[in-house]
Amino acid sequence: MSSLTVVDHPLLKRDLTILRSRETPHGAFRKTVSDAAAILAYEAMQEVDLKDKTIETPLESTTGYEIADEVIVVPIMRAGLGMVDGFVRFIPEARVGHLGMQRDEETYDPVDYYSNIPDTISEARVFVVDPMLATGGSASFAIEHLKQRGAERIHFACLVAAPEGIERLQSDHSDVPIVTATVDRELDDNAFIRPGLGDAGDRIFGTT
Ligand code: PRP
């Protein structure tokens, strides 16, 4: 079974509280998603490989490190877009692939509407990002799509996960580690995460 890491950090707990509050306007919500994503990125990138790099300090030569992996961040649109900045701020040379996916409002099944993935996906360490893991349908479908395109080292990061989504992802993709800020209580009858933070996409982009 894939690993599940619930990141325990005071800044993240504070950020989640801001995100959960219905009083938070979309500008503050968007900024906080980005900040929280950076904390998740810090944890999710623990396994990134390094290689030695020799450099000159102002005084002498010494050996340090550089990132050896090709890194690709793949947001599941729309809401995943809000987490991209938090991930690429640590690795500016990272490439970004896009997957457009939307839940059917009646069946809750994911429907894909866009895909633009860098050709280097098969050699890359891939971070799939989406603030919400509800039924797990979108994340599972996205990861399957990336595997079909050749991806072999995939990580998934979200802000809020439902137990049902974690179970689905671990069952469908036992090789994909999951990093989240919290595991919430349950999904309700409309497949919304409770207590959750509402519809992350709408709150990031101000569409409600
Ligand atoms: C939300 C969310 C995830 C998905 C989670 O997207 O951002 O992508 O639902 O649900 P699941 O785990 O049950 O698949 P939504 O369909 O609201 O689209 P949006 O990001 O464009 O708002």
TrEMBL record:
Gene3D superfamilies: 3.40.50.2020. Allosterically activated by GTP. One of its GO terms (cellular component) is cytoplasm. Uracil binds at residues 193, 198-200. Its EC number is 2.4.2.9. It catalyses: UMP + diphosphate = 5-phospho-alpha-D-ribose 1-diphosphate + uracil. Pfam families: UPRTase. It is an enzyme of class 2 (transferase). GO terms for molecular function: GTP binding; magnesium ion binding; uracil phosphoribosyltransferase activity. 5-phospho-alpha-D-ribose 1-diphosphate binds at residues 78, 103, 130-138, 199. Its cofactor is Mg(2+). Residues 6-207 form the Phosphoribosyltransferase domain. GO terms for biological process: UMP salvage; uracil salvage. Pathway: Pyrimidine metabolism; UMP biosynthesis via salvage pathway; UMP from uracil: step 1/1. Keywords: Allosteric enzyme, Glycosyltransferase, GTP-binding, Magnesium, Nucleotide-binding, Transferase. Binds 1 Mg(2+) ion per subunit. The magnesium is bound as Mg-PRPP. HAMAP family: Upp_B. Catalyzes the conversion of uracil and 5-phospho-alpha-D-ribose 1-diphosphate (PRPP) to UMP and diphosphate. Belongs to the UPRTase family. This is Uracil phosphoribosyltransferase. The gene is upp.
